[in-house]
Amino acid sequence: MYKSSTRSFPVYDSLRKAIIEQALKPGVKLPEDSIGETFSVSRTTVRNALVRLDAEGLVDLQPNRGASVADPTIEEAHDIFEMRQCLEREVMQRLCKMDSKPIVKALKAHLAEEQKYLDVDTTRSIRLAGEFHILLAELTGSKILANYVNEIVSRCSLVLARFAQAHSAQCGLEEHTEIIAAIEAGDADRATSRMHTHLHGVQDRALLNPDDDDKDNVSDILARYVTHNS
Amino acid sequence: MYKSSTRSFPVYDSLRKAIIEQALKPGVKLPEDSIGETFSVSRTTVRNALVRLDAEGLVDLQPNRGASVADPTIEEAHDIFEMRQCLEREVMQRLCKMDSKPIVKALKAHLAEEQKYLDVDTTRSIRLAGEFHILLAELTGSKILANYVNEIVSRCSLVLARFAQAHSAQCGLEEHTEIIAAIEAGDADRATSRMHTHLHGVQDRALLNPDDDDKDNVSDILARYVTHNS
DNA sequence: AAATAAAATATTGTATTCAATCATTGTATC
DNA sequence: GATACAATGATTGAATACAATATTTTATTT
User: Fold this and answer.
1) Domains and CATH numbers, chain B
2) Is the C or the N end of chain B the one with fewer CB within 10 Å?
3) Does pTM surpass 0.90?
């Protein structure tokens, strides 16, 4: 997956997680110096991570003005969700052409995880909900599709962080269940439409009555993500 | 588009073009030193460009082993083309929902360009053929979709460079014409299916009887030159 | 006091440097 | 003659250093 230098990976990974988990909010500045101090690496190393995050659309890198967490406009937000609909539709259609047995098994195992941490660990619960979609994409066997879905799901987190009121935009567990059922039945149309309404629901809750609040600072937040690997 | 430092952009851009135009073939090593000399920049700058190209899938970056032009397997090649089908289908469907007037106008202008350089400047002709697809994506107005299409078209060039026999896999001009006609008629189904067969044609010519010469490394070549005293 | 200009400070851009790792060649041993 | 090991050279990994650019603060003027 990430193939660059060993030292910049933790920086990349931590920043990425912090952004996805909405600890680093859209628009927050990401100074190379302070990030480097946090991870005890040089700016050179930090910069590599930032360049990559910029390429993935999670970070906005401007010449001579440094990096900040990407801060999508409302138009971009809609664009991102529309793209997600396209990609996840493809996922559904591919999965329904495959042998459903192993797919359903993997999905149900994941669903159990989701259930387990529901109302117990909110952060983890949200992360698992996102990973459900990534798992779906991975099960198609297409590395590229999985990559794109991964990327777009991350960017959706960013959109939610930017516009949604707190907790207003979680994935519904029952909806995940229904999607699995449709796949199990091999019903591509139903699976696709269930996914569509599922995503549409998330999008609506986020973008119908958007919430514009402002930003905070960096280092103290990042500190919690330093050795958060697994 | 590309927002990183001013000096690394030319490096990024030149490498990208060289790869797409198949001057740099899949698997070729890209040493930071020599590239830096070519552009009169430091390795630091080259590295930034390489990290980005790696993120885009055009370059393969391995820890402690440097960068080389991405060298997709035949499976990855199919994966790339399948993804491209998905993305360009989306493009067709979106375009056919829009006002066709300005779209068709832009497309016909591009087509004229293509016609102009056909049989005159092969390199340019091939590039224009690729840019037709990128233009289609841009006309949807979706930055993200356009980005993805741009990326996937580039990666298709890589696949062609890797597997196709020379000149076997160009875009047919008449097919572009037909696609424009379908859009003009507002016929989404026809536009989509025309695009599908168009892309399938390119793919088939490339991957049906692949020119899967192993990278002629030195020893393979030399093996044919050993003198047998007799 | 408000606005502008100048200086100081902070931050990024890029080259250079040194350390670490990999690839290749040469050598010794079996 | 083949394999294992050691030495050399080449290439990358990453920190430091310096230059260029932005930002902030202070000083000056109106």
Assistant:
1) 8-69 (1.10.10.10), 74-207 (1.20.120.530)
2) C
3) yes
